[in-house]
Queue: 3 jobs
Job 1
Amino acid sequence: MSDKTSSRFIVSGTSSGSGKTTVALGLMAAFREKGCSVQPFKCGPDFIDPGLHRLVTGQVSRNLDLWMCGENFTRDTLAKNSRNADVTIIEGVMGMFDGGISSSGSLAETLDIPGILVLDVRSMAESAAAIVKGFEMLRPKAAPKGIILNRVASKRHLQLVSDAIEEHCQAEILGHLPRTLAFEIPSRHLGLLTSDEAPLDNAAIQLLARTVAEHVDLDRIEHLFQVAKESQPDILSPSPAKKERCRIGVARDKAFCFYYEDNFDILRNAGCELIFFSPLADPELPVGLDALYLGGGYPELYAEMLSNNHSMISAIRQWIECDRPVYAECGGFMYLTEGITDQQNVFHCMIGAFPVKAHMQKTRASLGYREIQTLSASCFGPAGTVLRGHEFHYSSIDRMPDHIARLYSVNNGTSEGYTYKNVLGGYMHLHFGFTPQTADEFINFINTCRE
């Protein structure tokens, strides 16, 4: 790869379950094994796939979401984080055109990113060409330039599918994965296992890299998706780092691992020092903190350990009662309730800032993008501040008492964002990219509380 060029593409699927994640991870691993620097990204609001990308590439993976973050922020995130990479690989979301403005197809079209379509050809042969042709015709500006076939049964099967696609379609077949590939990422109710749980060992990653290198034309991919680095979108100059204005303790371990990396960057750029700690393992909070940030994750899986860490629970309770600031999302919000009833119907006591219990369900409780407008002045700025994010959880809470104020007016007709003293908690995962001034407002609020 020339110093003046790089390769950049998005890996999309015909549907969820088509093998998109396997192919994306395989390409990342194979190009890294080839000696290329690989920069991963994830289309959409997912937390788990970016962690797997980091496990395979050694690089932080970021979310690209046009609805949640806006076009300018998304374009800048891609540009400034891929500028030094030999190969930039963006994993899509669901099927290529699923999700409206947040779909892989919309991202490809808006940011002019050519794509590879992953097609699961199990139980089909020549009919595969009709599927590819449809994806080419539906939105020509987002049409895939290359195809990787998944679950190919034999040489004869490969020939039948390839001949049909080559006869009727414009996209080029770049390779395939055999049906015999023994590669699987364990999953649970919110999706795949997280990178913190090490679902992929080195042997599995190397197997995937070798398989992709054997069956996919990596050199052709580099050439087909090559772009001149000078032709990439202008890099917005980063703001000069501000003098440290506050220290935020961020809960980060196996129970709390769902964070948008860009939120950390926005906070740091505004002058925050982020201090990571583990509610699972640490006996007390780090010293010298000004606020707490409790993200989402899987507290229900580690509820007994969290509940048994009495010194940490006591420290956070004391922090809250002393009017210190806390912002909590989804799993972090569950941690602040009276307790969690897990899927085995066992109750585990938690912090108790909010007078409700969280209950795990066997079916999904909520899923979707959310836009909120604040109903009063808050840690995020004046009343009327608009923020965007995403909600996905299998738990529900008891009815929150009326004396607990609601901060958010949500675009689905509900009110959420519960407040107690200087605590704000709720199920929404907010991305600060749509309203980056939120970071300065948050810091101002923290410093007001400190004073």
Note: Confidence is low (pLDDT under 50) at residues 230-238.
Job 2
Amino acid sequence: MPSQNESVEMRFRRLAAVPLESVGGSYPFTPRGILDSVTDAVSQREMLGLLVKRDLKSKYKDSALGFLWSLARPLVQLLIYFVVLGQFLGAARGIPDFAIYIFTGLTAIGLFTEIAVGGTGSIIANAGLVKKVYVPREVFPLASVGSALFNFLVQLCILVLATFLTGHPPFHWAILYALPALAIIVVYGLAFALFFGALNVYLRDMQYLVEVFTILLFWASPVVYSWQMVRDLVQNPVIVEIYTNNPLTLAILGFQEAFWVAGADAAQPDLLLLRMFVALIVGLVVLVGCHRVFLRLQGNFAQEL
């Protein structure tokens, strides 16, 4: 019978003989490296699903209305903008089905805001998991995307129902604009979430900065006013082009084309669909760059937290 010290020494020898395997992602900036990093994150889809369910349950835990609260904020915003801007300030003049117009923009920009803000704070919010067990860190911003998409689908159902109630359901070919518009929002939102989520671990002010920036993006997008108003009021065509080619503006215009049937005759930018596809391609490049920054910074997440 070996003594206790000898058995401990034998265990140490066996452990020393086991080759070390890397569990963190140090991926080269090559197509193969990018594919490996994405595959590593996708392989944790069960973990991702559990994180999404946890986020959704934690938001509405012990509440009587549960997920119906996801409608409270956009509906209150809709009421305020419809009454104050639409009726009192006269913004509804010249914009048919103003309520549908407003709710379409709120639904689109609400998705982007929830992805960007939730993803920025996702690493810190999951500090306990980050410090205790290794999983690809991308799953935390991706979980924010998943919960945001769930809330978006709930609001989208309400929007579609509202179009039926107003007598203008989206039974037209332009409904296809919703697909590239949704892709633009998810791609840019995820890029924001990865980039600022990583920076937020080192500089905790990033989360507040992103919240302020999303407020600016809201007012810099045609949500409570029309794109035609900007075109008519701004005399400089260069500024109009910069404003128009803002990816968030293009995505909101795409959603309006899809669901705001009463505004089918409203002025829209030339080659809107082409602009959207260009913005989507640029967004994919930006997403790859932000992912690389995330991978470079994730190595010290546990120590910083």
Note: The chain has a mean pLDDT of 81.
Job 3
Amino acid sequence: MTTASSRAGAGFIFDNSYARDLEGGYAPWQAAQVPTPVLVKLNRELATELGLDADALDGDLGAAIFSGNQAPEGAKPLAQAYAGHQFGGFSPQLGDGRALLLGEVLDRQGRRRDIAFKGSGRTPFSRSGDGKAALGPVLREYLIGEAMYALGIPTTRALAVATTGESVRRDTGALPGAVLTRVAASHIRVGTFQFFASRQEEALLRRLADHVIERHDPALKGQPNPYLGLLQAVSERQAALIARWMGVGFIHGVMNTDNMTVSGETIDYGPCAFMDHYDPSTVFSSIDTGGRYAYSQQPLIARWNLARLAETLLPLLHDDPQSAVDLVMPIIDGFPARYEHFWLAEMRAKLGLEGEEAGDLALAQDFLGSMQGQGVDFTQAFRALASAAKGQPESLRALYLDAQALDAWLPRWQERAVTSNRTLAARAQAMNAVNPAYIPRNHRVEEALDAAVKRGDFTPFERLLAVLQHPFDERPEFSDYAQSAPAEVAVGYRTFCGT
């Protein structure tokens, strides 16, 4: 039965500021029509948060909208233009080659949110690509995004997954096609600024900066130099974000400038993965052969990317180029200290430390150092530390091939921790509230995707999703989801740019 809600587009109320403000920075476009769309996953909680009618969307109407076959009333689909440094090399035009910004809505809290497709067909920015996406990578993005959200890490989120009824050709053969619908505070990237700056389109660059300030940093309006304030705000958000990544062992895998948002959200879950055994040099991406985006490199790359953003803003900061450089350098040079501030706050919470003491940085670094080369599971080690806080270090020691370094560290940690007024039980409880029992273990993700793609069985996907949506709540029936991958599976594990 057709309802009034479905006729109105299931509750979509668009207010498309990017389309209004930044003509010249996008191409109006329509998603490709697909033969037999099926809605295989709707994020009902997120739909409700956005003010949408989840009941109306959870069926044929949702399949039509989220496959791209039917644009809801008020949508202004467009492919955003952006440039980017990819593995250090600059491409002056990249853009949404398989994505479309459907439009913007104001959610129930009055926050502006982008709703965008991935895998919706070719656009003017597709170059040689087909603009399509396969079901496996789309489901991966859904899983990882929801896991990050549950961990409290700023992230884009998946609203829906629709299969298209057609196959897409990849190196591994023909795969079922799908479209992901993704929600973000915005999809504006460092590469968006690079697009205008590389063309010396200063008027459009200024409009973009004003748009971002209006959207993400309205308190900067009216300040003497709001564009310098914008750089500082983006720097702060990225320092906080990367510290959170590092705290859970997350490796993005492709930190190109076109994958770094000015909103401070994690975006694009292609060759990403979570580290099992602690090793700072860990790389999972199949294309990162030089380790540019290894786990330990992520803070350094974030600073490098911010320097590229600063370069684009120079014409807006001062008429004299050198004076403009002098304005931005304290922010760029100050990034490592701001990152360390956020990282140390993260580590203090994970280690169960209250207050701040001068030796905390060395204490945190030495705990990580004790793990290196010992085959220690990063996530399990921090979780087991809560037991050690209660005087039961056996489960933590059991993770080590040789616990000698740990045994030397534990008394220092206990001595520092006793400065807290909390009981041992309260301290352990606080640690378990920030140290997850469950992360998206790589082998579990692959199992879930294989079952869905190869057998049409979404049961493992739904079970894994249920685990990841409550990462801090240890549940005996899910104990196997807290285990590392078997060694024969973990060795040589690689991820790919799929969507």
Note: DSSP finds 20 helices and twelve strands in the chain.
